[in-house]
Design goal:
Elements: E1 3-7, H1 11-23, E2 28-32, H2 36-47, E3 57-60, E4 71-74, H3 90-104, E5 112-115, H4 120-131, E6 138-140, H5 144-158, E7 165-166, E8 169-170, E9 178-179, E10 185-186, E11 189-190, H6 191-196, H7 203-215, H8 217-225, H9 230-244, E12 249-251, E13 254-258, E14 264-269, E15 272-275, E16 278-282, H10 289-311
Parallel strand pairs: 1-2, 1-4, 2-3, 4-5, 5-6
Antiparallel strand pairs: 7-10, 8-9, 10-11, 12-15, 13-14, 15-16
């Protein structure tokens, strides 16, 4: 049985629950929220559509209903405001996440915790340390969505199907994230080689444009509609699928590093093998000197944020 509990059914949590229902990945979906009326309403609304979807038990619950879940998704927290960075959310969301872990501690010994709350790398680290679970059992959405955005904009630039684009964003899920141009390829063809036969003649200026679009995607969406929900929910669903189907997929989740890339005791978005045990292997690959330096700067920023919480 694939039971999934979602804690926090705001814009992201509710959209994830709906996409999970459509996917058929779960046999049971539990919705948990401080506003219990909202959780009940979402569960009832989704249940009314069961005639059209794969069978799944959907209900509102409370923390004890996390018992037996294969994955618990932590999506509770304050929403990012227009013009606000993800790191500015840190203090209020840290308190929320730590409170949640305290309440579910007795139900999670064999469970995977998947964190969506921003700033996700900091929250993943706090949840991991507070829960006391094995390293692989706690992971965050990391830069899975950022990598998808990178692939989308490259697909637009190169005029190819986004599914043929392979490219990663690593580091912080936020302003200091690192786009790995050195590893980008189109169906195995290095981007530089692919571009030589292209008539578009994009050049460095378009690369800078792609960087801006990827890095500031969330700001553009939040400015336009007030919040993000569809993209991140699909990214979360992709991670859930890798866990529930034991796919051994390589995704840039937020995972704890212990020496990889020269970084210790910090959660960052890094290519990792994801299966039924959570993070089963971190891929420590070679980066260009510029990319390596940028990743370390991203790590330093996140470490300073965590230390500010400890001293605050």
């Amino acid at each position: 049985m694939s039971k999934v509990a979602i804690i926090g059914v705001g814009d992201v949590g509710a959209t994830l629950a709906y996409t999970l229902q459509l996917s058929g990945l779960a046999t049971e979906i539990v919705l948990i929220d401080l506003e219990r009326k909202r959780a009940r309403g979402n569960a009832l609304d989704m249940s009314h559509g069961l005639f059209f979807t794969p069978p799944v038990k959907i209900h509102a619950g409370d923390y004890p209903d996390c018992q037996g879940a294969k994955v618990i998704v932590v999506a509770a927290g304050s929403r990012q405001k227009p013009g606000e960075s993800r790191l500015e959310l840190v203090q209020r969301n840290a308190e929320i996440c730590q409170s949640i872990v305290n309440q579910i501690a007795s139900y999670v010994k064999k469970t995977i915790l998947l964190v969506a709350t921003n700033p996700v790398d900091v929250m993943t680290y706090l949840v991991l340390r507070r829960s006391g679970l094995k390293l692989g059992q706690v992971l965050g959405s990391g830069t899975v969505l950022d990598s998808a955005r990178f692939r989308y904009w490259l697909s637009q630039m190169c005029r190819v199907d986004a599914r043929n684009v392979h490219a990663y964003v690593i580091g912080e899920h936020g302003d200091s994230e690192v786009l790995l141009w050195s590893l980008a390829n189109i169906s195995g063809i290095p981007l530089e080689s692919f571009c030589k036969g292209c008539q578009e003649k994009c050049g460095p200026s378009l690369q800078s444009e792609v960087e801006e679009k990827v890095r500031n995607s969330a700001y553009h969406v939040i400015e336009a509609k007030g919040f993000t929900n569809y993209g991140v929910s699909l990214a979360m669903l992709r991670i859930l699928g890798a866990i529930l189907r034991n796919e051994q997929s390589i995704l840039t989740v937020s995972a704890l590093l212990n020496g990889e890339y020269g970084i210790n005791d910090l959660c960052l978005g890094i290519p990792s093998v994801i299966g039924s045990e959570g993070v089963e292997r971190i891929i420590d690959t070679s980066l260009s000197a510029q990319e390596g330096n940028a990743l370390r700067r991203s790590a330093d920023l996140l470490r300073a944020t965590i230390e500010s919480l400890s001293s605050g």
